[in-house]
Design brief:
- There is one protein chain.
- This protein is α+β, with helices and mostly antiparallel strands.
- It folds into two domains: 45 residues, no CATH class; 59 residues.
- Helices cover 30% and strands 13% of the residues.
- The protein contains two helices and four strands.
- A two-stranded antiparallel sheet has the order 1-4. It has a two-stranded antiparallel ribbon with strand order 2-3.
- Strand 2 and strand 3 form a beta hairpin.
- Helix 1 packs antiparallel against helix 2.
- The chain is elongated and about 90 Å long.
- The two termini are 48 Å apart.
- 6% of the residues are buried.
Length: 142
């Protein structure tokens, strides 16, 4: 899990994003005032996907990417297993599995690079706070 942004107080328009620090499992807001327990805070974070026998949190458009990676790793494992064994396919079976697995893993790495978060635009500070509204009926000396 990674913290992307912290909005405090929550519900403002435009949103008020504040600086923060994370140490182990503690999130500290780097603000001047001490927040009260009644104040709302929105924490925007990422989370790891889960895959089990019945469900998955991975979007369906990425299932082929995961399958390509799994096939590549399985082929490399089989290439290692079939080394120095009698194979019906001949003496080069392990080499063919190795080459095919390496091709699948290269394809997998390219797909990961295409969809990686580092390729997306991410702003750490979305805007600078607007200055206080100047009252035009009051003259302020420089």
């Amino acid at each position: 899990m990674a913290i992307e942004a912290v909005e405090y107080p929550a519900g403002n328009y435009p949103p008020t994003y504040v600086r923060y620090s994370v140490w182990l499992n503690t999130l500290t807001l780097l603000i001047d005032a001490v927040p009260s327990a009644a104040d709302a805070v929105n924490v925007y974070h990422t989370k790891l996907h889960t895959i089990d026998a019945t469900s998955s949190t991975v979007p369906s458009r990425f299932e082929d990417v995961i399958a390509a990676g799994g096939a590549g790793y399985a082929a490399l494992e089989w290439a290692s297993f079939s080394t120095n064994r009698v194979n019906v396919g001949g003496q080069a079976v392990w080499r063919e599995y190795l080459a095919w697995g390496q091709d699948r893993l290269a394809e997998f790495q390219r797909a990961l690079a295409r969809h990686a978060r580092r390729n997306a635009v991410r702003a750490r500070r979305l805007y600078t706070p607007a200055p206080d509204v100047v009252n035009q009926s009051t003259v302020v000396a420089p």
